[in-house]
Amino acid sequence: MIVDDVRGVPQTVWDRNDLPVLEQALVGLLGMEYVPEDVLNSERPSLASLEILCVDLVTTMEQAKILRAREWLRSMKEFAEQSERDQLLLRALEHWTNRRFEESHRNLRQVLNRYPQDILAVWACHMLEFYMGWISQMLTTMQLVRDAWNAQTPLLTYFKAIDAFSLEENGNFEQALTSANLALTLNARNVYAIHVVCHYYYETGQFYEGSRWMEAHRSEWCDNSSMRIHIWWHYAIFRLYLMDIAQVYEIYDQELRRKSDPNSLEDLDAASLLWRLHLLGYDDSSRWMELYQSWKHYGLEEFYWFNDLHALIVLLANGYGDKAAALAQHSITRSEPGSQETLRHALRGFAFFEAGECQWGLEDLWHAMQGTPFGGSNAQRDILELTVAVAITRLPNGPPTLDSLIDLGRSLKYETPLRNQLLSQMRLGVRENG
């Protein structure tokens, strides 16, 4: 039967008693404190419950879970009763699992045009835009649905968090903070809103204040099963900019390497943080080797290029240049035509940099920074900019002025102990090569 949920969105269920369970599953999906599968009927799942489960799988962008979503999609097509929303959502999910991302996005927007309070479609559309690097589209989607939400709309806290992240990534930092704070007023454990506040402090250069805020709210995020590691990464980044290296390593060892799911790809943040330490001259082969154990089974036929990038830097740091080259080639080949050139420059740039060819690495990474965005947040993509900055410091006739580093745009625009460290490296390089 097809019945409307509390937001007026048609749900294909066995009976009305399924609706409260669907709502609970959505809280698990959006709050990330438990997986929706834990509360849904696994023996006789409704079409609506399978849609939630599929969105949960595809938004991981992990190949094994994408394959599982494809299996569920085949069974979902067998449901005789389907609403127009079901048909659009299933088409969107099928396109997603087959890497037809623009078609998937188009179908999700169609759902939202008809049902702007469809929080499942809002989340799926938002995450797809995030993964593709479609930053301006995040705002367009929110503008499409925002007026349909009000203080009485159930699950408003999660909508406000999504809206806040969209605003933050587009540079509307104060509006983002306002929206995130409203979300947290409604639910102090809303980890996606907490995540937005972390980004706010990062983007505004308030690294000390950000770390203090995170410490004050630690009990509200430190045990979140899905986002715990990434939120700890944000805390470590704050401490890195303050050059509190001892605490950065403590977070890396005790938090980032304590995975919630040993079979899940929860190693991206560890690779990202260790590379930043590597850029600053902190080279510890034992940690790189241990991290490689989590990445060594990462296949050539994986699903998402941003994961490929982090797998590649782990391979490079461990000296597996041939494996890194093979991964790069496969990643470029299976990526979308519009992003292939950017991806080629990014992957090749990291390889040149690690090989000591800083001029070539600098040029490739610079092209990647100017090219089509390829997913991840602005803060995550700053790994390119920081690598460019370090490559500059290693050129034989490195730039002698602070402006040359600041002009990169984002990661070094605020005066911090980390920026001072890079300037020291730059001056030392000029003296040694002068």
Protein model, in words:
With 434 residues, the protein is mainly α. The protein has 3 domains: 1-138, Serine Threonine Protein Phosphatase 5, Tetratricopeptide repeat, CATH 1.25.40; 155-259, Serine Threonine Protein Phosphatase 5, Tetratricopeptide repeat, CATH 1.25.40; 267-434. It has helices at 18-31, 47-58, 63-76, 84-97, 101-114, 119-132, 135-145, 156-169, 173-186, 191-203, 207-216, 228-241, 245-256, 268-279, 285-295, 305-317, 321-334, 340-354, 358-370, 378-393, 403-406, 417-433; strands spanning 2-4, 10-12. A two-stranded antiparallel sheet has the order 1-2. α2 packs antiparallel against α3 (63-76), α10 runs parallel beside α12 (228-241) and α19 (358-370) packs antiparallel against α20. The longest helix is centred in the C-terminal third of the chain and has 17 residues, at 417-433.
Q: State the order of secondary-structure elements, H for helix, E for strand.
A: EEHHHHHHHHHHHHHHHHHHHHHH
Number of helices: 22
- Compute the gyration radius: what is it? 22 Å
Strand order within the widest sheet? 1-2
Estimate percent helicity: 55-70%
The secondary-structure class comes to: mainly alpha
Overall pLDDT level: 91
Can you tell me the residue ranges where pLDDT is under 50 for at least 5 consecutive residues?
none
How far apart are the termini? 77 Å
* Major sheet attributes: 2 strands, antiparallel
Q: What is the molecular shape?
A: globular
Number of strands: 2
Estimate nothing, just give the exact number of structural domains.
Answer: 3
Strand-residue proportion: under 5%
